[in-house]
């Protein structure tokens, strides 16, 4: 149990995907302009992350390892994740059309988000068990949600700031991210797995 | 995105490096721009990896464009890209193992880079083989140039060296070698390119939407 708790803290804070592994920046920069898209994205993303870690664990340990197909893991994982995202997309369109119209384009873009593929790859390389894989997915999702929400709340304030013209938009967002990343350096060494 | 018939091949390459530079102008695939640019060697290798994947993916997508049904085109493109990424990964693991150890995860993730899929979708799926080849070369070179210039500054400022050879005697600005420094470097360089665009070319300086 403590191991799992440590895994969550490690994945969400110490090794936060955005701030220490620099993954998922495209979506991070894309959806953080408004708070409600950031929140919607966080929820979808965390759910997709947990479920796709579970699916890829099953595929990796019951199909790829017994048949020595580990070298195909990039291809297999991307198919699993893309297929699952497509399914989630269809379900969301039915179940929550309002949210779907807000996040539609980003849902399609989840497939080209590196984190969603990085989590199964890291799970496979570190040899996590089934439960550990899902918990790692959950922690990564929570960490990404935290990053999105911090960034969205700062960028909402930034709308009112007088930024020099060449730095408007993405450049200032990058510099902000750098500052937050500096703060996250403080978490390093909190837990060593 | 114009059809390629009215654009020269050199124009396509120039477009990739300057007009639609993947990192600084379209602002796609930003993760590697921050993640692997702490040393010139990593940045260069990553750039070369992306270059080959982009060129090969563009050419193969263009070659099979008439045989793929429109409905399933995106999964098909992803599979083509995934195949080339796997091939490049196995090659690099065999020939440059020490560097592969450091940036392996990011090399595997080339498959999820938005820029490669978006060029396949926007250009290669609509154009003939040769223009697609040159578009791939242009985009790949643009990416390479961006990564090399970011990592050049970061290694020079962060550890005072280039390719691991010390060139500056004074104490380095450690911040730029730190993870956070990558964000600063990208932000500052992007702002710099925007400034040039506004000051000398009368552009609006707005970077892409950033997906």
Q: Could you provide a short overview of the structure?
A:
The complex is a heterodimer of chains A (193) and B (211). With 193 residues, chain A is mostly helical.
Output the keywords.
heterodimer, A: 193 residues, mainly alpha, B: 211 residues, two-stranded antiparallel ribbon, 8 helices, 66% helix, 2% strand, globular, disordered C terminus
Structural class of chain B: mainly alpha
Strand content of chain B: under 5%
Question: Main beta sheet of chain B, described?
Answer: 2 strands, antiparallel
| Individual helix count of chain A | 8
Helix content bin of chain B: 55-70%
Question: How would you sum up the major sheet of chain A?
Answer: none
Q: What secondary-structure arrangement, pairings included, does this model have?
A:
The complex is a heterodimer of chains A (193) and B (211).
Chain A: H1 2-14, H2 25-31, H3 35-64, H4 73-95, H5 97-110, H6 114-126, H7 130-158, H8 170-184
Helix pairs in contact in A: 1-7, 3-4, 3-5, 3-6, 3-7, 4-5, 4-6, 6-7
Chain B: H1 9-19, H2 31-35, H3 40-63, H4 73-95, H5 97-108, H6 114-124, H7 129-159, E1 161-162, E2 165-166, H8 179-201
Antiparallel strand pairs in B: 1-2
Helix pairs in contact in B: 1-7, 3-4, 3-5, 3-6, 3-7, 4-5, 4-6, 7-8
